Amino acid sequence: RPCRDKYMYRYTLEPLFPTEGLKHPAPFADELEPADGKPYERVTMEQAKRGTPPDRPVRVYADGIFDVFHSGHARALMQAKCLFPNTHLIVGVCSDDLTHKYKGFTVMNEDERYDAIRHCRYVDEVVRNAPWTLTPEFLAKHRIDFVAHDDIPYISAGSDDVYKHIKEAGMFAPTQRTEGISTSDIITRIVRDYDVYVRRNLQRGYTAKELNVSFINEKKYHLQERVDKVKRKVRDVEEKSKEFVQKVEEKSIDLIQKWEEKSREFIGNFLQMFGPEGALKHMLKEGKGRMLQAISPRQSPDSSPTREERSPSPTFRLPFFTKTSPSFSPHSSACFGGCRCVCVCM
User: Fold this and answer.
1) Which residue intervals make up region (Disordered) (predicted)?
2) Backbone phi, then psi, for 331, in 5-degree steps?
3) What's the CATH number where 140 sits?
């Protein structure tokens, strides 16, 4: 299977045949049956790169402390496993005595560190109580072909580089470190936030004695925890208040927007009705015209008919006139009464 990782080194294929490490923890070297009587013959780098027969995998050795086993350790072992097409990875873990002597105190004891390495899927074999400096006798005993480690000189035990003789022998296969994570970094985080982790474990039921905390400090941590609870409650109330205010603001904005829309609609309708050119003005003009038309008399024709055009007036008799009454011309200047009038002949 391909080794999918940005730290792939050289070959990217693991052995095609299944290994016990995928189903069971890797065995300890001192619990395995002794190798057959064949003499130990190392393979060269060229032979290892080309690939070896399935019954003769390239035996790669990687050692370390592996305290607080983390992804940086696992990536280093994965690179060692992927160095060659057919690799048998042997991992040496140093004991507590050697580690405390040359490097310092560990968080996990040696048994815990052995067990952590056994359960890494890339490991085929584990060497307990591994030596700090590799000797020819150790390499021959475990039939090691190559030693894998990062290329940075490892200064320890009075040596400028404990892998110097391995490099000179052509048995060194370099890997790359994973930046940003290491056991020292993890311990630094814990020490930096010591109070936080002490209070955390006190909450989880650990006693002050188990945590090596004095009585006064225990009370101080409990008080701090109660103060923090109050702070968290206040913070929760503040957050809820902010959420409530935010919701009110959102609703207020919606109401204002709706009010503005309705007000614009109302003003538009008002202007349409009562504006200078609104419907009310046209209605008043139309009503005024009808009223004036209703109360005003009809106008006379432009020209009156002439005397000749007029129809003759009907003739009638006066009751007090007789047939013997003299007739008068219509052009007479005076009548009986001495006035000027027009008399109608009987």
Assistant:
1) 295-317
2) -100, 10
3) 3.40.50.620
